[in-house]
Design goal:
Length: 301
């Protein structure tokens, strides 16, 4: 990204400025003059010399075409970039019927929000695992001069930079952390999405484009390791569940032995205590329901 910024900063950066244009509604009144001239010339065709009639008609037609060629229409959240012989003359953002000199070249640019969902791309995360990622980005043009003159095709530029930013963010973090001690792509959507937005804004500033919202629409392990990672997740879940179960069972055994000793229910030597602990652990940690066994003898028989 540093190389991109360094290369673009060496270019002559454009900057949007207001164009000197006029309201088209006032120019509509000016159209009445050539129309009146044509009507007057036709009405006086038998009273005035033919040369005067022809001159009046030519001047009226020229004035009509001159005025009509300068009209253009702008809808809300739409701008027009005006150039003269390749020189940037300004941008008009005033909606409605507008007018400028006919020899001005007018290029319309939408400043509305655009929504793009990028293609799924394969990225290696921080740990080198291949993952698939796709992002949804809401962007809009903020500087029409930069969008048209500083990049060749600003829409294609946005698509390329989205892919580059997704690769950068995807390689910055691991996909998942089973110990929940690191920032991950899967577990920290808001933080990672904020960094993706900041990365995109930094990359798209050269084109006069900002990003209003972005996030991941697809995030998963690549197919070649998806099965192995699923088995790993299942194993991690089983280990975590077993750890919690054993910790709870040990606490219950300690409590049972303490209560038996405290209330003098039974006197237990080391061997009987070990047998009771074994039985309680089997009962508490077993996956199946236990079946009671009545011992009619003693522990030593």
């Amino acid at each position: 990204m540093t190389d991109i910024r360094g290369a673009t900063s060496a270019l002559r950066q454009s900057s949007e400025r207001a164009a000197h244009t006029m309201s088209g509604y006032g120019m509509l009144l000016l159209l009445l003059l050539p129309i009146a001239g044509v009507v007057g010339a036709i009405s006086q065709i038998d009273r005035v010399a033919d040369a005067v009639i022809v001159s009046t008609l030519l001047v009226s037609c020229f004035l009509f075409l001159f005025v009509i060629a300068g009209f253009y229409l702008l809808q809300p959240n739409q701008a027009v970039v005006i150039t003269l012989f390749g020189d940037y003359r300004g941008t008009d953002r005033t909606s409605g019927l507008r007018w400028t000199w006919p020899w001005m070249i007018k290029k319309k640019v939408s400043v509305r929000s655009n929504n793009i969902i990028s293609d799924r791309i394969k990225v290696n995360d921080l740990r080198g695992n291949p993952i698939e990622m796709a992002a949804q980005v809401v962007w809009r043009v903020t500087d029409t001069a930069q969008a048209l003159f500083d990049v060749d095709d600003y829409k294609a530029f946005v698509m390329v930079q989205i892919e580059a930013a997704v690769r950068t963010i995807g390689s910055r973090y691991p996909y998942d952390d089973f110990e929940h001690q690191e920032v991950t792509l899967r577990g920290n959507h808001d933080q990672v999405g904020g960094e993706l937005r900041a990365e995109l804004i930094a990359r798209l500033t050269v084109a006069g484009i900002t990003v209003d919202e972005c996030g991941f629409t697809h995030l998963a392990y690549a197919q070649e390791i998806a099965g192995a990672m699923l088995r790993r997740q299942q194993a991690q879940a089983v280990v975590a569940a077993r750890t919690t179960l054993v910790e709870g069972a040990v606490g219950m055994v300690e409590m049972a032995l303490a209560l038996l000793s405290e209330k003098n229910v039974v006197e237990l030597d080391d061997e009987r205590r070990a047998a009771m602990v074994s039985n309680l652990m089997v009962v508490l940690c077993g996956e199946r329901d236990t079946q009671p066994v009545v011992n009619a003898g003693s522990l030593y028989q």
